[in-house]
Input
Amino acid sequence: MALAPALMPVRVVPAPAPAAPLSLRSEQGWTLTLPRDVPASWLAELMRAL
Output
């Protein structure tokens, strides 16, 4: 005996727009571009190292 096809409810939502990158510019002229979702703790460690 074959099973009858069934329908399942589905909700379609738009994908969120990607966040703009974060750019850090130094007085020496270099620019560092990072993803917006970089962890704050990592960014703080990077800034201390610079």
In short: The longest strand covers residues 22-25. Residues 40-49 form the longest helix (10 residues). DSSP finds one helix and two strands in the chain.
